[in-house]
Design brief:
Elements lengths: L1 H16 L2 E4 L3 E5 L4 E5 L4 E3 L6 E8 L3 E8 L3 E3 L3 H12 L3 E9 L2 E8 L2 E9 L4 E6 L3 H6 L31 E3 L6 E2 L3
Antiparallel strand pairs: 1-2, 2-3, 4-5, 5-6, 6-11, 7-12, 8-9, 9-10, 10-11, 12-13
Length: 190
């Protein structure tokens, strides 16, 4: 009985802290302990990028959001911080990127960035199955998930550039993942 309580108790905390989400080709819904956000995509393009380490990757680009969900294969893992890699990826794709503000709760992290005087939000979270990275160009999702601690972006201040690249398809140029076969770690280049 003593062993059971030590096993169940951590799982209870993990379950409460991890946001739940539903992602389809048409919409995303994110539920946390305190807030729910739902958004239907408009004018979206969808790709399913994959590599030797990424299974079930999906990239959705719409008018207001760019989203990328990355699920690694069982024999692979990130070769560093997933959020850190994506922030570095953003710095390579936006000019003069500067961090303006940051909000964090549970497993959701929201960063407000400025690129040449224009603003967007980067939302990162791990849902227990994979990493989800979202660029919120308008600020609606960031405002709701932060419970109004972050604000929507006035149209004149919204970044005009929409990210068209995918971190997954950028993998041949940067080693984001490593194999964990037989407990020997080896960086994979797809």
């Amino acid at each position: 009985m003593r062993y059971l309580s030590f096993t169940v108790l951590p799982l209870l905390f993990i379950g409460c802290a991890t946001p739940n989400h539903t992602l389809t080709e048409q919409s995303i819904t994110i539920n946390t302990a305190t807030v729910e956000y739902s958004k239907k995509f408009q004018n979206q393009t969808i790709t399913y990028p994959h590599t030797s380490c990424v299974q079930n990757g999906i990239a959705i680009k719409s008018d207001e959001l760019s989203l990328e969900k990355i699920v690694t294969k069982p024999n692979c893992q990130w070769s560093g911080s997933a959020t850190g890699f994506y922030k570095d990826f953003l710095a390579k794709n936006f000019t003069n990127l500067k961090l303006v503000d940051r909000y964090s709760k549970d497993t959701i992290e929201i960063y407000q960035y400025d690129s040449q005087g224009k603003v967007f939000y980067f939302i990162s979270y791990y849902d227990g199955k994979g990493d989800i990275f979202i660029l919120d160009y308008v600020g609606n999702m960031a405002t709701i998930l932060s419970q109004n601690k972050l604000k929507t972006i006035e149209k004149s201040n919204q970044v005009g550039t929409r990210l068209s690249k995918s971190l997954i398809t950028n993998t041949p140029f940067v080693s984001y993942f490593q194999s964990t076969k037989d407990n020997a770690e080896e960086v994979l280049i797809p």
